[in-house]
């Protein structure tokens, strides 16, 4: 009997086309020595979208859909929960509830939907997490921005060399349940309402500091306008505004289009690309400027993760 590797994606209807690229590339390049249970946790997906995504299943890869039904009314559309400048979606928090939702697994992989996976995902799964809660890669998409680097240091209390991106996570699900990570997160969220520009990511870095295994950056290779391009990326994460379905000449775009051109969502992806105007580009630029401005302001807040944990008012994990 083949070993089972559980993989988790969270998505809403707007990202179904890009999820098809992530899943298709994952399955094509994964070792055939394993079975893959690909769990798609969704907020809103249509029956047609689910049907299209299910066509990607193979003999050793099963796609399982689960609607997020947890009562998350406590996570509301507040400023500190916004992703980028004005986008609020509960899906950014879903990954934090995976260990308690899937108690049958002791270990798993979480991957964002805006990805392409040319590497063998079983190699990531087989990395020994030891006693760490998470394995993750440095957030290299922000490494050249001094304001964001200072934000990570002064808000989460983590230097840029230690701060991980939460778009790809190797999860010690058994250990996360043992330390009650989910409830501790909800407790901190509702007591302090920490202001953030990277909502779930800041909580993971701040809470699990010292219990995160840094992984080779090829497992979360992000476009950096050419400043750091890996020759052999294992997972490509089109983070922030670097989307090949919006812009030309994005790092690693050839990997994306290899699978997008074969996707049942190809027409939707091309329509999105063709309808992305200069006004949309301007909105992205304004969004990035707003994000950086908020980060600079938050750095000087009276209540930050760093100040709360260093004062020993609260414990991390």
Task: Supply database-style keywords.
single chain; 317 residues; alpha/beta; Spore Coat Polysaccharide Biosynthesis Protein SpsA, Chain A; 7-stranded mixed β-sheet; 9 strands; globular
* Order of secondary-structure elements: EHEHEHHEEHEHEHHHEEHHHH
Secondary structure category: alpha/beta
CATH topology: Spore Coat Polysaccharide Biosynthesis Protein SpsA, Chain A
Arrangement of strands in the largest sheet: 3-2-1-4-7-6-8
Number of domains: 1
Separation of the first and last Cα atoms: 36 Å
CATH architectural label: Alpha-Beta Complex
**Shape annotation:** globular
Quote the average pLDDT: 91
Rounded to an integer in angstroms, the radius of gyration calculated over CA atoms is 19 Å
Task: Give the oligomer, counting copies of the same chain as homo and different chains as hetero.
Answer: single chain
Largest sheet features? 7 strands, mixed
Beta-strand segment tally: 9
Strand content: 15-25%
Kindly state the percentage of residues in helix: 25-40%
The CATH superfamily is known as Spore Coat Polysaccharide Biosynthesis Protein SpsA, Chain A
The CATH class is: Alpha Beta
- Unreliable parts: 71-89
Helical element count? 13
